[in-house]
Amino acid sequence: MEKKPVKIVTIGGGSSYTPELVEGFIKRYDRLPIREMWLVDVEEGREKMEIVGAMAQRMWDASPYKVKVHMTLDRREALPGADFVTTQFRVGLLNARVKDERIPLSYGMLGQETNGAGGMFKAFRTIPVILSIVEDMKELCPDAWLINFTNPSGMVTESVMRYGHWDKVVGLCNVPVGAMLDEPGAIGRDASELVYRFAGLNHFHWHRVFDIQGHEVTDQVVDAYLAGKVSGPANIPGLEFIPEQLKAVGMMPCMYHRYYYLQEEMLRHAIEEYNTIGTRAQQVKQTEAELFELYKDPNLNYKPEQLAKRGGAHYSDAACETIASIYGNTNTHIVLTTRNNGALPDLPPEVAVEVSAYVGAAGAQAVAFGPLHPAQRGWLQLMKNMELCVEEAAVTGDYGMALQAFTLNPLVPSGKTGKRVLDELLIAHKKYLPQFADTIARLEAEGVTIKDEVARSLTEQGL
Amino acid sequence: MEKKPVKIVTIGGGSSYTPELVEGFIKRYDRLPIREMWLVDVEEGREKMEIVGAMAQRMWDASPYKVKVHMTLDRREALPGADFVTTQFRVGLLNARVKDERIPLSYGMLGQETNGAGGMFKAFRTIPVILSIVEDMKELCPDAWLINFTNPSGMVTESVMRYGHWDKVVGLCNVPVGAMLDEPGAIGRDASELVYRFAGLNHFHWHRVFDIQGHEVTDQVVDAYLAGKVSGPANIPGLEFIPEQLKAVGMMPCMYHRYYYLQEEMLRHAIEEYNTIGTRAQQVKQTEAELFELYKDPNLNYKPEQLAKRGGAHYSDAACETIASIYGNTNTHIVLTTRNNGALPDLPPEVAVEVSAYVGAAGAQAVAFGPLHPAQRGWLQLMKNMELCVEEAAVTGDYGMALQAFTLNPLVPSGKTGKRVLDELLIAHKKYLPQFADTIARLEAEGVTIKDEVARSLTEQGL
Amino acid sequence: MEKKPVKIVTIGGGSSYTPELVEGFIKRYDRLPIREMWLVDVEEGREKMEIVGAMAQRMWDASPYKVKVHMTLDRREALPGADFVTTQFRVGLLNARVKDERIPLSYGMLGQETNGAGGMFKAFRTIPVILSIVEDMKELCPDAWLINFTNPSGMVTESVMRYGHWDKVVGLCNVPVGAMLDEPGAIGRDASELVYRFAGLNHFHWHRVFDIQGHEVTDQVVDAYLAGKVSGPANIPGLEFIPEQLKAVGMMPCMYHRYYYLQEEMLRHAIEEYNTIGTRAQQVKQTEAELFELYKDPNLNYKPEQLAKRGGAHYSDAACETIASIYGNTNTHIVLTTRNNGALPDLPPEVAVEVSAYVGAAGAQAVAFGPLHPAQRGWLQLMKNMELCVEEAAVTGDYGMALQAFTLNPLVPSGKTGKRVLDELLIAHKKYLPQFADTIARLEAEGVTIKDEVARSLTEQGL
Amino acid sequence: MEKKPVKIVTIGGGSSYTPELVEGFIKRYDRLPIREMWLVDVEEGREKMEIVGAMAQRMWDASPYKVKVHMTLDRREALPGADFVTTQFRVGLLNARVKDERIPLSYGMLGQETNGAGGMFKAFRTIPVILSIVEDMKELCPDAWLINFTNPSGMVTESVMRYGHWDKVVGLCNVPVGAMLDEPGAIGRDASELVYRFAGLNHFHWHRVFDIQGHEVTDQVVDAYLAGKVSGPANIPGLEFIPEQLKAVGMMPCMYHRYYYLQEEMLRHAIEEYNTIGTRAQQVKQTEAELFELYKDPNLNYKPEQLAKRGGAHYSDAACETIASIYGNTNTHIVLTTRNNGALPDLPPEVAVEVSAYVGAAGAQAVAFGPLHPAQRGWLQLMKNMELCVEEAAVTGDYGMALQAFTLNPLVPSGKTGKRVLDELLIAHKKYLPQFADTIARLEAEGVTIKDEVARSLTEQGL
């Protein structure tokens, strides 16, 4: 039985990443024949989509393959017959991220896209939208796979399974890809000579490394990291893990672990940036603006080098590889978010985890990793339960549950200031949080407002 | 088969609490005929033991019962034939507590007896001692029960089971007793009209309350608490739980939860005390000095009222009630630390938990509480895993594991300052931490010293 | 707050046990003031109810207490305002039991009321009825407790929680009561000198015994049993457990374990009875007929001694004690079926187990028993999963699931004969199995009939 | 870093399977360069080893590869420097299997190599030997992998991990290989078009099948099986699964499940064979004798076709493929016995399971399968706990534990006859059960002997 050429629908198609996605598909066309590609976005993102869509069409046109790039603001037009739906949308665009960063930071708390208060609010905004996408998919393309790389990828993917009851979903992330690219050289090996086993949650996983002689070489990777040999964009000087603690972990953490293993330093770093060069979202907005200027060039028909600077490199590549592996049943080792099913026995089987999996026609086959030492188990269980609370609050709009999530989150010191940050963020994101409408009305009635200095700065930025 | 009158051995017999213990035994003599009582202490505590021992003898002499109070500095003299061994010792006396409080506070972290850095160090000092006591018990009184109320009671009790392989042990705490005394009046009920179910860990439990009509009245207790009606020494004005968060918990937390649900306020409060009236240990030292002055009075033969002020009221009472319940097989409801065995299915069966139990001749029968909501499960699993790391470090003296425990502990912000606090505490408690001798030597060689201001202040206090 | 006198509703009120229930209530009237008592039965049981109801009224009239016994064929008349609903009904009366026994035995398989094919069919008939009772209770007496002693008590009680979503339910059994009455004397102790801990499932539990000195004396009980000193109706000569196996269990099994630990002998015994004195149901029918003759005597106003012979002694007593303990909040140790909640960590928290519990106003507080050795864990998990399949088949009427239950059940050899027994029982109980109507129609169309010899014998008995 | 050519040591090298192993290595030489091959056997197997060893050398000599086949009766001579140790020995040779079959059958119980009483005794004989091999490996080749295909492969492999504390081990079986070869054609597909997921225990697993379009096609496989289209040696006419039960399982069972899903028919079939053509061991002995006659032919230098008839085809092939996958880090999908680690969350993480795994340089990466329905979970948990009891008895020689294993085993009706079978087998295998020496002496003193007819028949066969 022959497999048919595939139809891809990309929600949030106006993203600056789309060219990377197109490049990934072109590179894999032999394994993954694309029939048509649909970009979907909302009115707010129309202009960006039109720019990047034209650029995407130029890339295909410059390739040996004849693929039509469609664009629409109505996802129900795009979905029928889709084989794979990729999601890379950002509810409220980068402007929302600016608020996620500035409001917590104005109270001396970490403001970050996927961690702390900001990460929880990104989940609050995104989960209702992904669930409505899933409802459309049930009706219009019930056999399609949903390939999510909208952050916070773990919680968004888990919500699709838990509340959307949709199992054909995986969540992707570029962090493991980066580690597997950076580390081998640092220990004098080629990637093909090493075997990786990842386990944990999205942006909160550890990994062990073996060589093809079957010896564990995790210690060598740790030593190379401590010696400053592991490069990669994430390695901020002065923000290295504490050697004794790292060695006692017995596994290599991901770079996001610094928010939890180096809380003090990471917070200080974020506050410094906030007070000097601006938060990450502000930097990214600048980079994006430059990228779209490039994309407008009617002669540009390949992914520009500047996109790598944007961060998030390999994200789309991971997505393309996953799609090709499912389509071609290649059983490729990919680290992704999928149902636990026991892979991490310290968590319930039904939750989502980010683990090493072999990906083929039957989807992601998570590798059973086995129990963790209490030192890591404590973190893992804390973070997963926090995520479950965030998702419950995102779906129900229950204020008490949102407060529980804030209380559990290790990057939000519990107490009145934490509650204040929650309240201000609710007000700041009012437009994208219909599930919290009653609470927001109450807060407004109580006179809660965003801190003056932040409000002023947001106004200056036109947000 | 008649039961014989019992022999009690109290380790840390020089404690100011001993009169409460004696009072508790006198009150229950009908149910619990005491044959002899042995107080054991170390050379450092000899003077206090002699004072309190004489006082204890006067209390018995003033009672209708003829009980001899023995005193010894050699616990192996006391243990043979013991039926119950109670432990209320404090390694390094209150002076050690002063350090547990001041060193973290000098870096802006919570310094506290059973929580945060201080609590972990109390475990590091205490666990090796309790394990050596257990070794003596195996030889000298293999049928005795160990009734531990040395803090951190949960970790100390768990270590007895996990590393001492001694199952006849329970850990006691006065916090649940206090709640069950304070709350009924606050909701207009008599204690006899309410049924309590506790579950969690020592100093980290929640409870639900039912009336004898079978209706859950936890909400009424929560409302009464929020209305300021629950009195009790622990209810510090301005440090109330956040109402919305508390209501979403669905259970009543214990007062120590404020360190975790109100991190910001509790830390600020501790720093204020540190800068004004002194830390808690300093206050307690003062109270103790006054108490021992009273105890010296050869006419005093009853527990003086001032003892209540000392804090920790009901501790000894809980111990006496537990002993009487085991002896008399009364199946009394007591909240204590015992092996989980599934009572909290979110934790492994073999760990220690603090739960409602029915106590009789076969020991503590923990009540199966059932699974918790993720909001509480996250906290529970985090804290238990942190405890397991603390105990492992206490037993092995592994520095990396100590650092893991510090990293997991929510009251220690991870990073270089946290590590510095660990290092200074190791040096400060050198005398009582033989298992960490190599690490301490290394730190000293590296020139780590206690912060000047703290060192000066400790010197001034003669510590 | 005073508690009001209670209203009891007994479904299956025409049972010959009702006098025991009345006797139990009279005995406990001081602790449990009864306001009114309603007997409910179906048309088929009207005559028996009228006889036993009159008798019950005479018993109350002969007591110092003024209690009115009401009778009705409409449970919706009885339920409003009920405090406790007890269920002791038997769908299809004893005639159905005759079929449960004879049909399997005609194929050389065990026919028994609560075990094997018969037990599963009793569940199939009973579960839909108990669920409809629960629906009425939700509407008419939403605060009432359901005290189930309809067999198979474990599965019926579990279905109430699992499919009826009704948590105020306990299941009772007389087997643990019997053990706790018989065994102490056998080891030269008084019941008050021993502490029992039971764990397992209904008719499939083990127990450990301790003396009030705190020593485990389970071995003494096992030895006394092996020496023939444990009396009790269940101790059939020649059907003793194998000593070496029993000693390796490390706990005392219940008498129903003989069906599983002595499969060969128990089956042989059942076939002998079948071929000689008749099955148990036939014997019980005879006893019952005699009892109802006695009950007709207008001068009889106390429980006649002959009732004890009926088997099932203590059943009603256990129920009365449970009701009195809930009402009086006495925290009495009672062995009953309740939600696991972790008490047996080898089973999921949400299933029903039969364990030691302390019963008071908040219901049954199951004691956490801890993990079992694989030798017992294997049996426990097998039996619980079999029960879950039986319940699923009972609720859905799914034939394949019924077959799975038969396949898992250790007393039904898997294969075509087992399937044949399933098919014949479906046909034989057609009237009481509406959920299987389609399957039964199919079987009838395929010409499945009950074996001639059995059909003839059933006809002779007028069934 | 180059990998060196490998040294293979085969314990039980005199097996008639050895030529299949050699063939498998020759076929894969490009991927798996063999340096040397050692056959190890015991004195009893010396003659067979010499025949098959010469044959193996001829096979290598006829290949393009220069590999020396060494033979020894001293495994300590062979082990140093081994890369892979394969185990295919049979303690007591086929003669022991004859007893495992005839003694149970003489009492009307299933006698079988890996199931029932026979399977348990094969474990009793084998486990102490494999543990002594592991001890030698720790000393002589601590980096080697142990590739076990000695039956009962699941229990033997689990014992290596659990009691030998050796983790570099996998257990192999030919049953899954057979299913994956037979089934695709039966549903009109090519093997390359299907994705298999297996889960369970050795000789007790289920599988699900998906096509490369991502649709589950397990139902098609089940239908093809029911239509008689799945060929394979194991498909005995008249012993098909019951259709309704099979469909309700929702997964395809393995052929050994017939012992549990069709107990009645399988037992009848075994008894028929016993009474007519002889037990399986007797048939195999005949086949083996013929095979060794062939092997003696100095011109035979390829695997003769007759070996396929021997049963157990693909066993060695699975071993060669596993070794090549580890060596070449190919992440091949292989179904094998490995540590659970959560792959089947219904079992503890530390036990062994037989599941789909991806095999590479870091060993077997088991795929997390997720929870089973109670109908299968009950069987799985029963069988695993039975296995744990068997292994405990095998290691400790505890008679009570052996009796527990017999009681749990669904193919041994519990009771006195079951115990008798245990006792006779202990006596019959006395020579190979040193751990049970005391028990056997006691039984002999009590006059236990093997049933006359069996003893006579064994004598006739010279056993």
TrEMBL record, chains A, B, C, D:
SUPFAM superfamilies: LDH C-terminal domain-like, NAD(P)-binding Rossmann-fold domains. Its cofactor is NAD(+). Residues 198-412 form the Glycosyl hydrolase family 4 C-terminal domain. Binds 1 NAD(+) per subunit. Gene3D superfamilies: Lactate dehydrogenase/glycoside hydrolase, family 4, C-terminal (3.90.110.10), NAD(P)-binding Rossmann-like Domain (3.40.50.720). Belongs to the glycosyl hydrolase 4 family. GO terms for molecular function: hydrolase activity, hydrolyzing O-glycosyl compounds; metal ion binding; oxidoreductase activity, acting on the CH-OH group of donors, NAD or NADP as acceptor. The record marks 113 as: Increases basicity of active site Tyr. This is 6-phospho-beta-glucosidase.
